[in-house]
Amino acid sequence: MVDRLPGFIPEELRQLARFVPRRGWDVIDWKPMLGSLRVVSWRYVSRRGVDQLAAITGDVAAPVRIAKTLSETVPLGDVDEPDALAASGDDILRLYFSQWLVPEGMFIDLRTARFGVDEAGLVFAPNGLWLELRPGFREGMLALYRSFYSSDEQAFDSALRRMGMLQAGLEESAVEELKQLLHRHFGIDQSAQHFCIDSFKASFDELFGFFVAHDYKLHSDFVYVGFYLITLYLTLEQLGQAHNVREICAQVLL
Questions:
Q1: Is the Cβ–Cβ distance between 36 and 131 less than 8 Å?
Q2: Virtual CA dihedral for 71, 9, 91, 245, nearest 10 degrees?
């Protein structure tokens, strides 16, 4: 399916699209998806809006610093000291969560090549892969992460409805199945989590299987959030350290 994507889509984005299972493409609402692919691809090539969004994101991304280049840093891929890798991974998680607080848009490529380290810490040099999520979806994701800290089932349901995940007419058993799938996909229960892209991909596949079985049509926002998480998992798996994801999420979003 990836081979049939429009020719204007850059390779950096095609690499992420390959993680979507073949059957997953059948449940995507293609009109908004194609429109957003065109916009994001143009931004990647032109870097339009990158500097403006970097300035806004820099206000919430501390301790990560945002720069245009990594020329003054050691590439993150060259770091091999476990404590430094763990600290960098923690900061990448802080960047991941902090971008949910930025209504103007988010940089979705958190792969290792975008990061460097200097004496002051982690530096992020974003490329042009950025987009604005629909307000309801972004706010729903914030509410979803925050709901993991309470036993308030209504807060969890409300978050899913904001995201458009609870389709009308779903039987109660299907609703419960979807909740479990989404909790596994986005969950933050572990205080010492090792990241594995194969586990994430399996979770992604299960979700798309549910959507196919229940005749969903997914907005592009969900797909891009999947891309965002893929890049996070790829990088943290490469760093190979355990992270207290629950604590970091609480620090940033609560």
A1: yes
A2: -160
Contact 52, 85 (CB under 8 A): no
Give the distance from CA 147 to its chain's centroid: 18
- Which structure tokens are listed for 113? 């090549």
- With a CB cutoff of 8 Å and minimum separation 6, the contacts of 232 are 92, 93, 96, 110, 195
Residues 107, 99: Cα–Cα separation, whole Å: 8
At what angle are helices 245-253 and 135-147 packed, to 10 degrees?
Answer: 130
Within 10 angstroms of residue 7's Cβ, the number of other Cβ atoms is 5
pLDDT in tens, 85-128: 999 999 999 999 999 999 999 999 999 999 999 999 999 999 99
Q: How many other C-beta atoms can be found within 10 angstroms of the C-beta atom of residue 178?
A: 20
Q: Is-above-0.90 flag for pTM?
A: yes
